[in-house]
Amino acid sequence: MKSAEPSLSLAQPHPEGVGILRRSGFALALAAVAYLLLAWAKLVPVNAIALTVTLSAIVIGVTVYAWDLYRNVPPGIKNNGVFTSSITNGGLWGWVAGIILTAFYVALYWFPETLGLGKDGSNTGIVALFDPLKRFFTGSNSTSQWFVYGTLYTVAIVSLGIKFMLKYRHNRYQLIRTSVVMVSQLFLAYLIPEILEGLTTGQAYFAKDIKNIWPLNYYFFYDWHLNGMLEGGALGRLFLIAGLVLFLIGTPILTYFLGKRWYCSWVCGCGGLAETAGDPYRQLSSKKVSAWKIERWMIHAVLVLVTIMTGATLYGYFSGQSEILGLSIYNYFQKPYGFLIGAAFSGVIGVGFYPVLGSRVWCRFGCPLAGYMGIIQRFKSRFRITTNGGQCISCGNCSTYCEMGIDVRAYAQKGQNIVRASCVGCGICAAVCPRGVLKLENGPEEGRINDNPISIGNDGIKLNGLS
Amino acid sequence: MNEPSASQPLVIIGNGIAGITCARHVRKRSPRPVVVISAETDHFFSRTALMYIYMGHMKYEHTKPYEDWFWVKNNITLVRKYVVRIDTEKRELHFDDETRMMYGDLVLATGSKSNFFGWPGQDLKGVQGLYSYPDLQRMEADTQGISRAVVVGGGLIGVEMVEMLHSRGIHVTFLVRESEFWRNVLPAEEAALISRHLREHGIDLRLNTELKELLPDAQGRVRAVVTSQGEEIACQFAGITVGVSPNTEMARQSGIACERGILVNEFFETEVPHVYAIGDCAQYRTPPPGRRAIEPLWYTGRFHGETLALTLTGKRTAYQPGPWFNSAKFFDIEYQTYGDVKANAAENEKAFYWEHAGGKMSFRAVFDAASQKLIGINVFGIRLRHEMFDQWLREGRTVSHAIEHLADANFDPEFYRTFEHEIARAFHTQTGITITPRPKSLLRIFKRPQYS
C-alpha cells in the first residue's frame, strides 16, 4: 500500500541531496587545485609527495564526484539546470572561472617567472612542484612552464574525460571517442614525448607529439625545429617524414573517409580538452549568422597567415637569409604570428574564455588545421550528418549544444543533411536530439548535399514541387 | 463581397508551427504582404521545447528556430495583438485594443487549448495545463520551492510535465486513467515498458486512477487532489494534461462553422470565402484515409502550412499526407512509430513484438494476417530511418522484408549495439518464419528510388 504522505524518508525516491561521497570528491579535487594555487603563491612545500598527492587527488576527486553524481540516475541526457546554474550559463561564476583561467594563461605565455620559472634548475613555486616528475622522465630539473602546463592539461583531459564518460555512459559513440581522445593525449601528446625526451637528452629539441601537425603546430618549419629533427637521427627523421606525410597525405585521406572528426574530436589535444574540460560550456557558443560570418573570414585568414608566415620561414631556411623583401622574417612573420595566434588566440582566448564564449572558440575561429580539413570536409568527403526524414520538431537542443555554433536545427527541420566545414563530429547533437533525427555517418558522396530537401510524409507537396 | 486585390495582405492568426510554416512558404513563392498575428509571443518558438526551458536545458531564445531579423528580412510582418472577432463580410479583424485590420485572405492557425472537465477546484492557483508560453511562465512561478506535485492524464504532455517537475527535485504523483501509461495509444507491452521506466525514475505512478476534485488551502491555492479511489494526495501544484481541444472560440463567435474544430475541406478552406484553417484548430470534414478528423501534432501542423501555402499562391493543392509517423521521448527512452500501430490489433492484423532483456528497447511490427504486408511499427530505445519505413510502407513490403533489411533502417549512432539478429530470432520463434538479416548496405540506404 503506497502512502500519499510526504516526507517518508525511506520511501523518498529522490536522492536529490548531495551525499557525503559527492562532497568528498568535490572537496578533494578542490583542495588539490587549491594546493596548486598555493604552490603558485609559494605558500606550501613543493616536493615529489606533494605533487603525487595533488595530481592523484584531482583524478580521484573528479572521478568520485562524477560517479556519485550520475550513479543514481538512469543513463540518459544530463542537461538539467545547465542554463540555470551560473557556472555554466555564462553567469557570475562562469566569469570568475574565466578570469582565473585567463590569468593562468597570461602568466603561462608571457610571465612564466611568476609561476616560478627560474634559470638553470633553480625553479620555485608551481614550476618547482613539477621538478620531481620532470626528473623522473628526463633525469634533470629542466622543468619549464610548458611541462607544468602539459601535465595539468593531461590530468584535466583524463579526469574530466572520466566524468564525461560517466555522463554519457549510454552512448557508445561518446564512450569510444572519449577513450581515444584520452589515450591520445596521455600517450601521444604526453608520455611518449616525455620518455623520448628523456632518451635524447643533450640533443637538439624538436616537438615529439606526432599528431601535432602543421599548421596547428606552426613552428614545425622553423629553422631550429627543422634542424632539431634533422640532427635528431632516425627519430628526428621519422618525425620530419611523419609530419609531412600526415599533412600532405594522411589528413586529406582520413578527412575524405571520416570527416575532420578523426582529428578534431578523436585525436587532437585542443579538441580533447574542449570535449572533456570544456563539455560543460559547449552550449555557450554563438549560433547567430553574424558569428558564422566572422568565423568564415577569421579561420581562413589564419590559414592564409600561417601559410605566408611559413613560406617566409622556409624561404629564409633555404636561402640562408633572415629577411624577405626587406622584412625581418622573425620580427615581421614569426613573432607576430606566435604572439597573436599561437599564444593570445589559441591559449588565452581559446581556453581562458571557455566559461564565457564556449569551448571551441579556437577550433572554430582560429585553428588553421581545422580550416584546412574543413575545406576538404565541405567539398570532398563522405562525412555528413543525416537528418531523419520529417521527424524534427525544431526544439533546438542540437543547435544549443553544438560547440561549433552550427545551427543544426536549421538543417534538421528542413530534412537537409548537415555538411559544414566547421563540424568536428563530436556527436552531441545526435545525442541530445529527443526524436532520433540526427546521425553522423560516412556514405557515398553522391546525394550527400541535398540543398532542396522535401519533407517526407506530405505527398501533396512532393507532387507539386514546393521548394 | 469584393474579391481581394493582391495588395491586401494574407493575415495569419497564430504564430505556431502551422501558421509560421504557411507564412514562410507563401513568402518563398510570392511577394504578397504577409502578416502574422499572435497574442502569445513576439516571435515563433518551438512549442515542443517548452519542457526544456523549464528543465534548464535551454533558454527561451534557443527555442526560436529563426533569429529575430529573419522576419524583417523576409518581409513578414509580426503583430502582437489579440483578435476578438472576424468580420467576414468586410474582411476585417477586430483586436482587443479596438483597432482593426483588413485582410485579403485569412488563415486561422489558433492551435489548441488544454482540456478541463469541470472538476471542483480546477480554477485554484497552482492548477494548470501546459500548452502555451504563458502556461510555462505560470508553471515556473507556481512551482518555486514546492516539494510535491500531481500530474493528471497519461499522455504526451502529461509525461513531459512529470519529467519537468521531477527535474527540479519535486516529488511527482502521476494519475493515469488507463491500466498503463498511454495505454489508449500504445499496445500493452510498450505501455508497460514506459510505466516501468517512470517508476525507475521514482515517479509515483497511479494507474487506473482519475481525478475527482482539487482541494484548496486558505489562500486559494491547491493543497491536495482527491482521486477516483477517494484517496487524498497532498500537493502544491497540479498539472492537468487530459488532452487538448481545438481553440475555436473566436472563429465560432465570428460565425465560421465549427464542430470540435474549425471545419475545413481538403484545401483547408472553411465555408467562408478567403478564410482558411490549419494546424491543431482545424477539423477535416472528410478526413484523409486512415486519419482522424483532428490531428493536433507538430508534423501535421507543418504539413498543413506547406500545403495551404501552395493554394494561397495560385496552386490549389489538396492535403495528401503519406504514411503516418510520430515520435516522442519518455524521460530517457525514445519512441518512434511509422505506419499504423493501434493500441489493440485489429481483426485482420497480426503483431510481432520483441523486447530487449534490459526492458528499455522494443520493436513491434504489425502486419496484415493474410498478405503479410507491413502495416506499422513501434520502436522504443532504437532509432530507425524514417525514409526507409516510408518507402517500405508505400511499396507494400512484407514484414519479412522489413526484418530482413532492418539494418538498413537502423539510425542509431555509430558503434551502437545492433539487434537485428536477435529480432530475427524472436520473429522466427513467434511466426515460424526464418529470416537471415542482411548486413547494412550503403547502396540500398543512399541510392533508393526517390518518390516524386
Notable traits:
heterodimer, A: mainly alpha, Alpha-Beta Plaits, two-stranded antiparallel sheet, 20 helices, 4 strands, disordered N terminus, B: 452 residues, alpha/beta, FAD/NAD(P)-binding domain, 3 domains, five-stranded parallel sheet, 25 strands, globular
Tell me the layout of helices and strands.
The complex is a heterodimer of chains A (467) and B (452).
Chain A (H helix, E strand, L loop, with lengths): L19 H21 L7 H24 L20 H19 L14 H5 L1 H8 L6 H23 L4 H28 L23 H8 L2 H26 L2 H4 L4 H8 L12 H31 L3 E2 L2 E2 H24 L1 H4 L3 H5 L2 H12 L3 E5 L9 H4 L7 H5 L15 H5 L5 E5 L16 H6 L3
Antiparallel strand pairs in A: 1-2, 3-4
Helix pairs in contact in A: 1-2, 2-6, 3-13, 6-7, 6-11, 7-11, 8-9, 12-13, 12-16
Chain B lengths: L9 E4 L3 H13 L4 E4 L12 H5 L14 H5 L2 E4 L3 E5 L4 E4 L4 E3 L2 E4 L3 E3 L12 E2 L4 H10 L5 E5 L3 H12 L3 E5 L12 H13 L3 E3 L4 E6 L5 E6 L4 E3 L2 E4 L3 E3 L2 H5 L8 E3 L10 E3 L4 E3 L13 H15 L12 E6 L2 E7 L9 E7 L6 E7 L5 E7 L5 H10 L3 H6 L1 H4 L10 H12 L10 H5 L6
